[in-house]
Specification:
Helices cover 75% and strands 3% of the residues. It is an all-alpha fold.
């Protein structure tokens, strides 16, 4: 069994912070505002995406589809809690085609796929940085 080092915990904590800030910034640029639940979602998503891109077992296109699936899944889970269960109405995709319960839709999953490809160099740079530090 592989042991988790303090360096790895620090690495993924920083990646989570970067993801939280980045997701919030992206949403502010796209929609003009954000919600704290999206900050948490970003903090969950980037470490997972980072792990996929750092592994490099698949080509960029496959990794991007995997990452889009991760983001879409996290967005669905957060949406079910904050929008459907708590009724906060943070977002509603029910007006878009191919949506699931108004929480996710095909259009945004495709956009997440493109963004995931663009994020790959960022993940590589972070990995290179942390490999040199830890």
């Amino acid at each position: 069994m592989k042991h988790i080092t303090a360096g790895k915990v620090r690495e993924y904590a920083w990646v989570a912070v970067i993801g939280a800030a980045g997701y919030s910034l992206l949403e502010i640029l796209w929609r003009g505002h954000t919600h704290w639940s999206m900050t948490l979602a970003g903090g969950v998503c980037l470490p997972l995406i980072y792990r996929v891109h750092a592994g490099e077992r698949h080509c960029l296109a496959v990794r991007s589809v995997i990452c889009s699936g991760i983001i879409t899944t996290v967005e669905f889970a957060v949406g079910v809690v904050v929008n459907l269960l708590l009724g906060w109405q943070v977002w509603d995709y029910s007006g878009l085609r191919f949506n699931l319960m108004g929480q996710i839709c095909l259009l945004y999953s495709l956009l997440w796929c493109l963004l995931s490809a663009a994020i790959c160099p960022v993940c590589r740079a972070l990995k290179k940085h942390f490999d040199g530090v830890c």
